[in-house]
Design goal:
CATH superfamily: Isochorismatase-like
Order of helices and strands: EHEEHEHEEEHEH
CATH topology: Rossmann fold
Helix content: 25-40%
Length: 185
């Protein structure tokens, strides 16, 4: 594992709405701390940071644009010089220009963190891998929520998280811990 000098940290949907209690029980309570450690490292080493913000098309979403849930959490507020990608669907590549921006900047390696593991993280990582980017997902810098499967069987956030990471690892991305990523520098 080698972390490239221009590896981009992609922080997905760290907005106020993701903390809303109506989303239910989540896993990985230390995820934000891991994300912030990585963000600090990226800023100290002057690597590119990409903040992804979800602007929902659904009025009942925690990310509906006309309310405070759509705003970035203060601790994840983009700094000058960091890229902002606004999306309306889970995949950060869909209709956003992200791929073109990465290609233009010569960025081939993406480190993905954020929420929710089974939704925007998995969707974005799948596309990144399919497009040929060297894609890493930091398993301890993501989280998700309890969710029922198609047949109505309840699954814990830990199970949903694990299955989503299992879907990605080895096919679309390399799933590793934040410590492994930071030590690869």
């Amino acid at each position: 594992m080698e972390l490239k000098a221009n590896a981009a940290l992609v922080i997905i949907d760290q907005q106020k709405g993701i903390l809303h209690p109506r989303l239910g029980r989540r896993n990985n309570p230390e995820a934000e701390a891991r994300m912030l450690e990585m963000l600090g490292h990226w800023r100290r080493t002057a690597r590119p940071v990409i903040h992804v913000q979800h602007l929902s098309r659904s009025e009942d979403s925690v990310f509906w644009p006309l309310q405070s849930g759509v705003e970035f959490q203060q601790r994840f507020e983009p700094m000058a010089g960091e890229r902002l990608i606004q999306k309306q669907v889970p995949d950060a590549f869909c209709s956003t220009g992200l791929e073109a921006q990465l290609r233009e900047a010569g960025i081939g390696q993406l480190i993905i963190v954020g929420v929710a593991t089974h939704n925007s993280v998995e969707s974005t990582a799948r596309t990144a891998g399919n497009l040929g980017f060297d894609t890493w997902v930091a398993e301890d810098a993501c989280f998700t929520f309890d969710k029922a499967d198609f047949f109505g069987h309840a699954h814990s956030a830990e199970e949903v998280h694990g299955m989503s990471l299992g879907n990605l690892h080895g096919e679309y991305a390399t799933v590793v811990s934040s410590a492994q990523i930071l030590s690869a520098d």
